[in-house]
UniProtKB/TrEMBL annotation:
<feature type="transmembrane region" description="Helical">
    <location>
        <begin position="20"/>
        <end position="37"/>
    </location>
</feature>
<protein>
    <submittedName>
        <fullName>Amino acid ABC transporter permease</fullName>
    </submittedName>
</protein>
<feature type="transmembrane region" description="Helical">
    <location>
        <begin position="58"/>
        <end position="78"/>
    </location>
</feature>
<keyword id="KW-0812">Transmembrane</keyword>
<dbReference type="GO" id="GO:0055085">
    <property type="term" value="P:transmembrane transport"/>
</dbReference>
<feature type="domain" description="ABC transmembrane type-1">
    <location>
        <begin position="13"/>
        <end position="231"/>
    </location>
</feature>
<keyword id="KW-0813">Transport</keyword>
<keyword id="KW-0029">Amino-acid transport</keyword>
<dbReference type="GO" id="GO:0006865">
    <property type="term" value="P:amino acid transport"/>
</dbReference>
<keyword id="KW-1133">Transmembrane helix</keyword>
<feature type="transmembrane region" description="Helical">
    <location>
        <begin position="84"/>
        <end position="100"/>
    </location>
</feature>
<dbReference type="InterPro" id="IPR043429">
    <property type="entry name" value="ArtM/GltK/GlnP/TcyL/YhdX-like"/>
</dbReference>
<comment type="similarity">
    <text>Belongs to the binding-protein-dependent transport system permease family.</text>
</comment>
<dbReference type="GO" id="GO:0005886">
    <property type="term" value="C:plasma membrane"/>
</dbReference>
<keyword id="KW-0472">Membrane</keyword>
<dbReference type="InterPro" id="IPR000515">
    <property type="entry name" value="MetI-like"/>
</dbReference>
<feature type="transmembrane region" description="Helical">
    <location>
        <begin position="112"/>
        <end position="131"/>
    </location>
</feature>
Amino acid sequence: MFWTVTLSILQGCSQAVKLFFLTLLFALPLGLVVAFGSMSKWAPFRSLAYRQQEARGFARWLSQLRPLSALTNIIVWIIRGTPLILQLIIIFYGPGTWFGTNPWNAFRDGRMTACCIAFIINYACYFSVIYRGGIEGVPAGQREAGEVLGLTKRQIFFKITLLQMVKRVIPPMSNEIITLVKDTSLARTIAIIEITMAGEAFMKSKGITWPLFYTGVFYLAFVGLLTLLFSFIERKLSYFK
C-alpha cells in the first residue's frame, strides 16, 4: 500500500512541478513588464499644461494623467485583492458560463492550460510589485552617475540598476516562489490531480487518512530544495553588501 500511495502522489507531484515551472517561466519576465508599466511616466495630455499656463481643475488633472501606469496599477490591485482560487474558477469556468462554450476544451490539456494562465497572471502581478520595489530601491545618484559617464538608459538599467535590483528582490522573491509551491494545491479546484488531490483520493476510496498527511513530506522536500537554492544564490550575490 505504501508504494502504491507513493507512486500515485509522485504522479500528482509531476503535475505540480509542471505547473510550478511553467508559472515561473512566464511570470518572472511578465512581472518585469508589468512593473515597467506601473512605473510608466507616459502622459499623452501633458501638453495641456503648456498650452494653459494656469491649467486648473479637469484640464490640470488630465495633463497629469498617466493612463498606462493607472491601468496597470488597477489590474495589479484587482489581482492582488482577490483570491487566486477565485481567479482560477473565473478563468476556467467563466467562458463556458458566459458564452455557452468552453474554449479550454480545444486544448489537449485545457485544464492545465487554464490553470497555468491563472497562476501566471496572479504571480506576475505579485512579482511586479517586488521588481518595482527593487528598482526604486536603487539610489538615484547611481543612475545619475551613469548618465554623467555617458551611458544610455538601456546601459544604465542593465549594468547598474538590474544587478542591484536582483540582490534586493531575492529575499521577497524567494518567499513568493515558496508560496507558489503550496499554491499548486489549488489546481485541484478544477480537477487537476496534483499532490494533495492524489493523497485525498485514497482517503475517499480506502478510508485511510495517512496518505493525505504523507503529501506534506513532498511539499517539505520541494520547499527544502528551494530554500537551499536561494541560500546559495544569496551567498553568490553577497558582494553587493
